[in-house]
Amino acid sequence: MQYGLWYSGSFTPQISVRCCEIANEPPRPKSKLQVGSPIIIVEAPKVIKTAASMPCLRANSGLVKPGDVGRIVSRKPKDLWAVRLSIGTYLLDGKYFKALELDEGDSD
Fold first, then answer.
1. Which residues sit opposite 69 in a β-bridge?
2. What is the largest CA-CA distance in the chain?
3. Which own/partner contact pairs does 68-73 have at CB distance under 8 Å and 24+ positions apart?
4. What confidence score (pLDDT) does residue 16 get?
5. Is domain 37-99 annotated with CATH 2.30.30?
6. Are the C-beta atoms of 92 and 78 separated by less than 8 Å?
7. What is the Cα–Cα distance from 90 to 96, expressed in whole angstroms?
8. Is 81 exposed, middle or buried (0-12, 13-18, 19+ CB in 10 A)?
9. 71 CB burial (10 A radius; 0-12, 13-18, 19+)
10. Could you tell me which residues are beta bridge partners of residue 20?
11. Residues in the chain with pLDDT < 50?
């Protein structure tokens, strides 16, 4: 049985959304990424977008390469991050980099 409202001859369904936890689902690990975290590029994006007030979208012609190291400046919606690299600050999707694990132990 469907419930809805009739407006000028068309059917508009009413949807209610309820969030709940599934008992069998393991808890998601918290992201280690936060503002100031060091990151390393694992895959070069095809296009890059500057994080300036007037962003510029351009093809990545070897500017951002796997192995480049940077630092997170800010978080944007939908797993988009502003990352400060040696060549400037760019908006990168989270799939192109990972958190860089720094060893802060004793050095002989």
1. 40
2. 80
3. 68/40, 68/41, 69/38, 69/39, 69/40, 69/41, 69/100, 70/38, 70/39, 70/41, 70/97, 71/36, 71/37, 71/38, 71/39, 72/33, 72/34, 72/35, 72/36, 72/37, 72/39, 73/35
4. 58
5. yes
6. no
7. 12
8. buried
9. middle
10. none
11. 28, 30
